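Appendix C reproduces, verbatim, an entry submitted by the partner laboratory led by Prof. M.T., so that reviewers can inspect both the input and the predicted structure.
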Amino acid sequence: MHLRSLYLHNFRIYEEAFYEFGPKINVISGPNARGKTSILEAIYFLMTGRSFRQTQVSDMIRHGASSFYIEASFIKHGIEQTLRVHCSGKDRRIVYNNTLCASSSDLLGLLLGAVIHPDDATVVKGAPEARRHLLDVQIAQANPLYIHHLTRYNRAMRQRNHLLRAKTAATIESWEHEMANSAAYIVYQRLQTIEDLQEKGQRLHNLICGGNDTLELAYKSAAVLRSISVADIDILQLRTYYLEQYSKQRKREMELGVTLIGPHKDDVFIGLNTNEARFFASEGQQRSCVAALRLAEWECLKANSYEMPLMLIDDVGMSLDYSRRTRLFSHLPALEQVFLTTTEELNLPGNTHTISV
């Protein structure tokens, strides 16, 4: 996969901008507040339909404008392709190779990639939602069926919660069956991904840190033991477990008006040398853990899609110290096409293309 060009109109500070990219390492250089991160944000939006910042879509519309437009030209499977997105508040129009897409979820899997950015430490030290999101985005990019089940699960849960608040059991079992089917699939896929990230993340963590610390990942769910292997999981048993729990917890959940069990409540344990990283690791160690996981995410996407995903690295000077950054830079040529923002002059290996903003 090769992103050839990007056109922005009324996106963040850009009234209009057009960039062409090199096939390997693209260095986006310039002072602060010049729109470097916005270029990566636009690329990521084309990948996922959302920003990697803590922001709303409306925040990405240039001040004084009513909408933004992004257009990208890229090579995938050896074929030149185009992707166009027009957003005005809640309304989105997505056109892929001149075909109108039905929803934002159709973006997932078109442009593949991962991102390392300064707020990444929240994956370790933040709420469980950030860790679930890391898994969900990675899986959904390579597996369209996953986003189908995630959407179906959330829709059915909203209906079940409505019935719980209304304190009525009418039709609730039909929603519980839909939830159980999708919950079992979601948990199974997350467990598989955790195993893949564990193996790759450990190796990449050692590469970044230059040491032999143990990076540990485990899926935390009431439905499965933390030490269980995905090979030992029976997806039908998972489905049965959820159906039993929905029935068992129904009375209590009616009092609270919410569903208390399911993949929306699960978490990921991230450990460093057997200790939970969010409590016992320094911020530098936390950032190193997430950087390793992002690189592992890239490798998983490559393995599952048979494509070379894009790698976005935003303001890497804020994310890692000098020694870790140097080791990360030595790994960049293996990542094929990289987009890296910086305020400094960098000494990078391999073929680089510089964009000044």
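The chain has a mean pLDDT of 93. Additional entries are available on request from the coordinating office.
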